[in-house]
Amino acid sequence: MTRRTLSLPWLGEGQTTSERLSTGLLIGAAFLLCVFLILPLGVLLMGSLFDDAGEFSLVRFIEFAATPGMGRAVWNTIWVALVVTVITVPLAFLYAYAIQRACLPLRGVWRIVGLSALLGPSLVGAISFIQWFGTQGVLKSWLGDSSVYGPIGIILSTVYASFPHALMILVVALATADARLFEAAEALSASRWRKFVTVTLPSARYGLISAALVVFSYSVSEFGIPKVIGGNFPVLAVEVYVQVVGMHNFGRGAVVALLLLLPVLVAFIVDWRIQRKQQASLTARAVPYVPRPDWRRDLPLLAYCVLVSVAMLGVLGMAAYTSLVKFWPYNLELSLTHYRYGLAEAGVLDAYLNSLKIAGLTTLVGTPFIFLVAYLLEKNRSGPAWLRPLVQGAAALPMGVPGLVLGIGYILFFNHPSNPLNGLYQTLAIMVIANVVHYYTSCHLTALTALKSIDREFESVSASLKVSQFVTLWRVTLPVCLPAVLEIARYLFINAMTTVSALVFLYSPETLPASVSILNLDEAGELGPAAAMATLIVITCALVSLAYSLLTHFLFRRQQAWRSPSR
């Protein structure tokens, strides 16, 4: 019995039906990524380089340079991002070092607390620091004559919001080490500091650089924090919002968005080149390092973890407390008034339900799409030569594109009357698509990491047995990669609930998400209801994370038992 083949030059000669379907799906994925990522960014670039008559011109950049205060906004954005990076990375590195290289009790608890800022919008930190250090703040005297409304508040809030992003990278960077290096250092009577400088830091240098670039990029592109606590301190992210929403100047908004994109892209390219030079920290002969108890190291690090955890929980706790008091700071009686006002009178209940719909649809649409594309890239080798590099490049691009930039690109592209997809604008669908695209790269890398751990022999054996690769995907690959799939789903849901910058330009009154409604409440001076809605989002994300942990634990016990060592 001969194997049936199809000869289609544009899909490759002599492909089987399964291979043809795989190639077609990959072409479809490339088309979707082009439409919803590359074309909006291209229109954004054209919007900044072409005048109203459609002719190439740098007049928009000249106007931008001549606008009073724009140069100051650029400088403020850069130096604040540098300060945030210099503060955040050492704090996160020492915290990660305590978790991975010390013998601390309750290590899992310290890690969860360190990542707790991910559960809420970045506005949570800004609201809390206003209550701690603002005009009527509890600790206002700590700042002396300085005001929290401005660079101090932006720096404090951004350090809080970016801390878990740096921590995740540095925990992984410090997770593996060769014990032989430490034994050699001890044999040479090296001091504790000498071992740290010559062994620990060099092995973690790539993680430190990546963490620094991620924090810098986050700070440059962050919008919600400076909008809430920045006062009259101008930064580029807020200027984008002012030009587009306040002045309806889309051309100048495109210029500012492009300027916002440049430092992030530079950081992304530098990180990509560094990752290419990174070598494995553990060789085949390496001995995994296991820290031994040492009170002289463990006790100070435990005290540091307690101090940082108190600060992290203090920020979340202040937001929750603000949402429960009647009228800060004059009537501190506990009440659910702000929740009733926010959910009923201010119409935030609809916004909260919209966010649940957006997050749910983002998870249901994004998770299978991202995993399937990663599978086709990793396990399928058929198709034209240009296809795989195109999809791989498009999959990596969102990591270097801030949410505000993507939002401006979507306005210019989808809001154009001649675009046949114009009907998507200001719908839940366009916000779901924006979320999937915005967080695509991290999920894609997670899926690829899981898929690379599976031997290609599974596909080879399936082909020899005349079994479709999609049957193998369903019966073998997907069950093995189920933990990674659930992690992608959790990541998409939480980020879709908490993001502000990716959606602030795309909603209508009927599709207003909860994270943006918090921004609107703050602008109206309703800090209590804003804190209530932020707390509600935190609780929702915490419950989803708890459900994810329980489900993962159940799957590991029932369906992933092969991962555990045999007894």
Explain this structure.
- This protein has 2 domains: 29-57 and 336-562, MetI-like (MetI-like fold, Orthogonal Bundle), CATH 1.10.3720; 67-335, MetI-like (MetI-like fold, Orthogonal Bundle).
- The chain is 69% helix and 2% strand.
- It contains 24 helices and 4 strands.
- The chain has helices spanning 17-49, 59-66, 70-101, 107-114, 123-133, 151-173, 179-187, 192-203, 205-221, 224-229, 236-246, 250-277, 295-324, 337-345, 348-379, 387-396, 403-414, 428-438, 440-452, 457-464, 469-480, 482-498, 514-523, 527-558; strands at 6-8, 12-15, 325-327, 331-334.
- The strands form 2 sheets. The protein has a two-stranded antiparallel sheet. Strands 3-4 form a two-stranded antiparallel ribbon.
- A hairpin with a 3-residue loop joins strand 1 and strand 2.
- Helix 14 crosses helix 24.
> What fold name stands as the CATH topology of the largest domain?
MetI-like fold
Per the principal axes of the C-alpha atoms, what is the gross shape? globular
Q: What percent of residues adopt helix (DSSP H or I)?
A: 55-70%
**Count of extended strands:** 4
The rounded Rg comes to: 25 Å
Structural class designation: mainly alpha
N-to-C terminal Cα separation, in Å? Answer: 46 Å
In spatial order, strands of the major sheet run: 1-2
Number of domains: 2
Question: Quick gist of this model?
Answer:
With 567 residues, the protein is mainly alpha-helical.
How are the SSEs ordered, and which strands pair?
Blueprint (H helix, E strand, L loop, with lengths): L5 E3 L3 E4 L1 H33 L9 H8 L3 H32 L5 H8 L8 H11 L17 H23 L5 H9 L4 H12 L1 H17 L2 H6 L6 H11 L3 H28 L17 H30 E3 L3 E4 L2 H9 L2 H32 L7 H10 L6 H12 L13 H11 L1 H13 L4 H8 L4 H12 L1 H17 L15 H10 L3 H32 L9
Antiparallel strand pairs: 1-2, 3-4
